[in-house]
Every structure is written in structure tokens, then in C-alpha cells.
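wait is this the right file?? whatever heres the structure
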């Protein structure tokens, strides 16, 4: 009996160690005032990008996101959360200039705070959310993550979340 209990406790500990942080829910409007609720993407892998229209690294990341859209289609959803000082006019111009197909939604800071848990953060920052709504990974832009935002570094992480090796 003790062996069974010990085995169960070990299994629970292993599952807890592998558990991901639940992605905070939100519903935010895009420039057409259409709401985008994270819960609507349940069952898909979600790339959640925190960005600003004046950020050159965010603009460079758009080419990676375009490749993701072409490669994975409906299996991976992309949502970009725009934070101040970006405004609706700047976002509309940014969408046209960068030929963006995925939704850009507006946050006044509350959603960002629920993810970062601080009053400040750098952009771009990306969260990779699994089909069950758990945060599997997150990447902030730096020299060590440059390949995620400007190369092919994000693809192995997406493959892992999709369950491919």
C-alpha cells in the first residue's frame, strides 16, 4: 500500500512540475471595435504578442508571424496586443504598411499587467499558449532571443507545443 501511495505522490509531483501557468483571460477590441476573447481560441496554439507600432523589433517580427500563418494555418492563432502610446490611427497605418492579417487588439495596460505582473515591460514580448490555455513559454526581445523574433527560432517551440518533435 505504501508503494502505491508513494508512486501516486511521485506522479502528482511530476505532473505539477510540468504544469504551465494559466494564461490570464481577456476580451479586447480591435480597431473596428470587434471583441477578441482569448477563450475563443481554445483548442489552438496561440501566439500572443505584446507590441507597439513604433517598435522596430515588432515590425521585424511581422515577417516571422507571416511565416507562421503560412506554415500552420488554422492550427496556430496569432493575436497582437497593442499598448500605449500606440493609438487607433497608428495601428491602422501599421496594419496597412506591414500587411498584417492577424488581429491587433487594444489594451490600456490591464491585460499586460496580468501577464507581466509589473507596471513596466519591454516590447516585443511573446507568449506561447497551448491548446488548453496554459502558457508554455514566453520570450522578451534581447540579443539571446533575436532568432525568435527575426529568424527561425520560434518554429521549434511551436512544433513542441503542437506535439511534434
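ok assuming it is, sequence goes like this
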Amino acid at each position: 500500500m505504501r508503494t502505491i501511495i508513494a508512486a501516486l505522490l511521485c506522479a502528482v509531483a511530476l505532473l505539477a512540475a510540468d504544469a504551465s501557468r494559466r494564461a490570464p483571460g481577456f476580451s479586447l477590441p480591435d480597431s473596428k471595435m470587434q471583441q477578441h476573447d482569448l477563450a475563443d481560441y481554445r483548442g489552438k496554439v496561440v501566439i500572443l504578442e505584446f507590441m507597439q507600432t513604433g517598435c522596430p523589433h515588432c515590425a521585424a517580427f511581422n515577417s516571422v508571424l507571416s511565416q507562421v500563418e503560412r506554415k500552420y494555418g488554422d492550427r496556430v492563432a496569432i493575436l497582437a496586443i497593442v499598448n500605449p502610446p500606440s493609438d487607433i490611427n497608428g495601428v491602422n497605418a501599421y496594419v496597412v504598411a506591414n500587411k498584417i492579417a492577424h488581429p491587433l487588439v487594444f489594451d490600456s495596460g490591464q491585460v499586460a499587467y496580468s501577464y507581466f505582473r509589473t507596471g513596466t515591460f519591454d516590447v516585443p514580448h511573446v507568449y506561447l499558449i497551448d491548446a488548453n490555455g496554459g502558457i508554455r513559454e514566453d520570450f522578451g526581445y534581447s540579443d539571446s532571443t533575436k532568432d525568435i523574433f527575426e529568424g527561425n527560432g520560434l518554429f521549434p517551440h511551436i512544433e513542441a507545443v503542437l506535439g511534434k518533435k
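Residues 24 and 108 are 15 Å apart (CA to CA). so i think its the right one actually
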